[in-house]
């Protein structure tokens, strides 16, 4: 196990530096001058522009700039945005909101997706299975912004079960509807993935053996079928956590949620490269850590898996 952890740590380090270097290069090597853009229609005085370039190390070569950035990341100093606001302060406001939103979406797709997927797998070929497959296919086919507007109109305007927009109200009740919308597409994938795995494992030899021994039906399903069916599902959920964090832009825009997606979008519009790179770096770290946790969960789900 220790050797495996060290191996995974080495992979995480390589991927982290490679991904951050690529993102940093894509953002900072664009032909536009971000300092000149700060002045808008009026050109900044030369001494002011020179001072800003020195402050953000834009007068240095690319690798020197990247070194200063990585040095700041490890000291939790993400610098200052071009608007003069510390990027760390912006993160402290935006990330907790999106984390809560992503956890609601992850709970929806994990709990409900596995539940309906298991039922569909147990009733393969029957009307319930056909209905679940049809509904999940519709959810996958419809764009997320269409699902968001439909949910907003039906449950917010017509039924008035949920608030139409979030705004400054960041409690669980206000984030519930956008969280459900964010997790709908992934929920459909989890349902179909769980259903196919359960239907396949029901015909396995070890299931027939367990049934022949007289084990109760519920024990066969939970202990033998479900446990072996969850390995690809957990893999998908671990990878999807990072996608939920970074892919909440559309959902946050529809429901006016002041989270990571909206902040990155505004930073891109304003040309605030330090903010964009810093947010993407944290998203990369979340993605890498979640995948390491998923790999460690494999051994808990399937004792046959050994990391030696």
From TrEMBL:
The keyword Transmembrane applies. Pfam families: BPD_transp_1 (PF00528), BPD_transp_1_N (PF19300). SUPFAM superfamilies: MetI-like (SSF161098). The chain crosses the membrane at residues 12-30, 97-120, 132-152, 172-191, 229-255, 275-301. Its main location: membrane. Keywords: Cell membrane, Membrane, Transmembrane, Transmembrane helix, Transport. InterPro entries: BPD_transp_1_N, MetI-like, MetI-like_sf. It is a multi-pass membrane protein. It is found in: Cell membrane. Residues 95-298 form the ABC transmembrane type-1 domain. Belongs to the binding-protein-dependent transport system permease family. This is ABC transporter permease. It comes from Tsukamurella pseudospumae. The lineage of its organism: Bacteria, Bacillati, Actinomycetota, Actinomycetes, Mycobacteriales.
């Amino acid at each position: 196990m220790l050797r495996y952890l060290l191996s995974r740590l080495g992979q995480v380090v390589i991927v982290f530096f490679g991904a951050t270097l690529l993102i940093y290069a894509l953002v900072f090597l664009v032909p536009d001058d971000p300092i000149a853009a700060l002045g808008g229609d009026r050109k900044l005085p030369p001494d002011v522009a020179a001072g800003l370039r020195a402050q953000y190390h834009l007068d240095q070569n690319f690798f020197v700039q990247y070194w200063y950035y990585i040095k700041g990341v490890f000291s939790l100093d993400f610098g200052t945005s071009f608007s003069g606001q510390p990027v760390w302060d912006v993160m402290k406001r935006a990330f907790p909101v999106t984390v809560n939103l992503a956890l609601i979406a992850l709970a929806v797709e994990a709990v409900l997706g596995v539940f309906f997927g298991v039922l569909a797998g147990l009733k393969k070929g029957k009307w319930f299975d056909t209905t679940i497959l049809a509904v999940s296919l519709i959810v996958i086919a419809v764009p997320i912004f269409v699902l968001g507007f439909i949910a907003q109109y039906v449950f917010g305007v017509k039924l008035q079960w949920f608030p139409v927009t979030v705004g400054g109200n960041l409690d669980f009740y206000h984030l519930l509807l956008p969280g459900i919308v964010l997790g709908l597409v992934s929920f459909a994938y989890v349902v179909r993935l769980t259903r196919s795995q359960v239907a396949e494992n029901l015909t396995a030899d070890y299931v027939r053996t367990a049934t022949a021994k007289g084990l109760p039906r519920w024990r066969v399903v939970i202990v033998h079928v479900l446990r072996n069916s969850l390995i690809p599902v957990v893999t998908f959920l671990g990878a999807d956590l990072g996608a939920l964090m970074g892919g909440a832009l559309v959902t946050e825009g529809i429901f006016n949620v002041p989270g990571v997606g909206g902040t990155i979008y505004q930073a891109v519009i304003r040309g605030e490269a330090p903010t964009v790179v810093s947010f993407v770096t944290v998203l990369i770290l979340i993605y890498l850590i979640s995948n390491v946790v998923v790999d460690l969960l494999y051994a808990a789900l399937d004792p046959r898996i050994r990391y030696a």
